[in-house]
Amino acid sequence: MRYEILSFHRENRVMVIQLHGNGTCYGEPVQIANELNELCNTIYPDPEIQVVIINLEQTGWQNKLTLSQTILNTDPARDNPMSWAEPVSKLEIPVIMSINGYALGQALELALACDMRVASHASFFGLPHINDDIIPWDGGTQRLSRLIGKSNAMEMLFTGQTINGEEALRMGLVNQLIEGKALLSKVMETAQKIAGKGPIALKYTKEAVNKGMDLTMDQALNLEADLYFLLHTSHDRTEGIKAFQEKRKARFSGE
Amino acid sequence: MSGFETLIYEKTDRIAYVTINRPKAMNAYNIQMRDDLYQILSAIKDDPDVYVVIFKGTGEKAFCAGADLSEFLTAPSPIAARKVRFERDVWGLFLSIPQPIIAALHGYVLGSGIEIALCCDIRIASRNTRFGLPEVGLGMIPAAGGTQTLPRTVGKSKALEMLLTDEWIDGEEAFRIGLVNHVVSDDTLYDHANEMARKIASHDPAAVRAAKQAVVRGMDVRLSEGLFLEKSLASHLSAIKNKQP
User: Fold this and answer.
1) What is the DSSP secondary structure assignment for residue B29, as one 8-state letter?
2) How far apart are CA B192 and CA B204, in angstroms?
3) Is residue B1 part of a domain?
């Protein structure tokens, strides 16, 4: 497949996916969906990739209204659009979204499907669908309310208003705010740090949290325990404890 | 009342104190502590004279710096380990205690330490506290409920950040993200915990237990069931009250 919109590269065990906006939008939404889907299909089975960064960057933007209108142009009934969030949410490894600029509409829904969000101070967030008499369809109403609480989510959904980075941090929509120039290198630092952990432990942690939040506490504790005991059989667990005791860096093999 | 190797158990004025007491090992959690904790929690659960519980740690360095890894290398088979885990389900027991539990936290609160704190209902921390979950760096995942209790307390995104990066946070940051209810100066930690415990202990214990049950169990079910539970607990309470002279 030829990638026309997404570009990507690897730094050690971290895959960076770039989604650049050209001033008004991030590109043809269906094309983005196809490319994300294809790329996630190649990332999923690749044992060399431990962490994914999606870098959402909006450079040279002039008019945020144009941007939101363009993104909203996909009418689910008419255009048979495709999900951006779904292929990303299916990845078993940690996914961090780095946001510099406008994350509106489907772009924010994509961000919500990631495990963590880190943004620059000059970032803006919103689900402006209501302005066009439609509702979000790529997970926005579900993931946003679970992340920032029903009340904050309702406010964003009903008003269609865009919030800034400070406000997003206060609500817990983003994990951290970082100065724009340092953003991607900071996110990469975090990603590299994560990539040094046990690969199975990372996947199981993500699974335990994501699935567990949908279960009753009792069932969720059982899930956690079962995953923990499964890890008992791994080489990495023995290596991790040994390395700690020998005060050296662990050499995880993913086995 | 004591006689435990790793914990000190005391009771004064309807307040029970559980003090983690392995200061030389930074209060690390070990198998002996699991057994001691199981006994103490069982006693608390059945003791109508205990209105509220405070958890704390001895020594200056740590509330509890995690699990004692020296016991980890001889890992039993997963089948045996799973059997043991649920035979004496200390974490299940912890989460089923009917009385409110306050954690007074200082120093290192890592791994099992933060998981103990998260089994409590209210957390108060001194500024010098350091919270973290180092498990994934050791090729493990938390196993005392941390992957479940943490996201239910601070939300999924912040929980995953702490779990995946193993970056430690201090008392102020813990307060900002809602991991602790209050952050206080180091020398007033126990005053704050005691004051809160006394306040809780001054209320009708049946009402206090009902309130805890309504919140803890209610958060685990659909809203309609939670509302039903609340109504049942309230009418049960007023039935008891009406019987009293």
Assistant:
1) B
2) 21
3) no
pLDDT at A80 over 90: no
Q: What is the distance in angstroms between the Cα of B3 and the nearest Cα belonging to chain A?
A: 30
Q: Which of B135, B161, B173, B225 is catalytic?
A: B135
Residue A73 predicted with pLDDT over 60: no
Candidates B158, B91, B144, B76; CA nearest to B114 is B144
Q: B178 CA to chain A: closest CA distance, Å?
A: 11
Active site residue B115: yes
Look up the domain containing A241 and give its range: 199-245
A185, A218: one domain: no
Is there a catalytic annotation at residue B135?
yes
Question: Does A69 share its domain with A19?
Answer: yes
Q: What is the pTM of this model?
A: 0.90
Closest approach of A57 to chain B, Cα-based (Å): 21
* Positions of chain B with pLDDT lower than 70, given as ranges: 1-2, 73-75, 245
What gap in Å lies between CA A249 and CA A242, rounded to an integer? 10
Please tell me the distance from the alpha carbon of residue A50 to that of residue A93, in angstroms, as a whole number.
Answer: 6
Q: In this predicted complex, what is the ipTM?
A: 0.88
CB-nearest partner of A225 from B143, B156, B157: B143
Mean pLDDT of chain B: 94
Strand partners, A54: A17, A97
Specify the CATH number for the domain of residue A59: 3.90.226.10
| Contact assignment for A209 to B163 by CB distance below 8 Å | yes
Question: So what's the pLDDT on residue A66?
Answer: 42
Q: Which residues of A touch B141 (CB under 8 A)?
A: 201, 204-205, 208, 224, 227-228, 231
